[in-house]
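SAMPLE LOG
Freezer: B-3
Tube label: C17
Construct: single chain, 110 aa
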Amino acid sequence: MTASQETEAARFAAEPESWGEPQGRLAGADAAAHGRALLEDAGVDVAAVERRVGRPRIGGKAGRKGERSARVNVAVTDAQAAIIDRLAREGRTRSAIVREALDEYLAARA
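STRUCTURE (predicted):
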């Protein structure tokens, strides 16, 4: 990107009211194709982006397309769910709360 293009992009980003009204909406494969074309036009290695897309795996390992972190599905009591929900309102995810509780339980028994 040239310095002139960077300046224009920064001005555009700083003044959202200058964006105007949307000219339409894309979804699904059309949206994916349009996004890919934008990245390619910007000189981005789209294949590299696709390899890195997704959430990182739990435990700090790099995520790979099609790989999921190990999962355990568990039912909880209404009382446990209420506590988890209360803690989640403090800004943490339900998954993070349950993982922390499980880590503490397993560490005490290891």
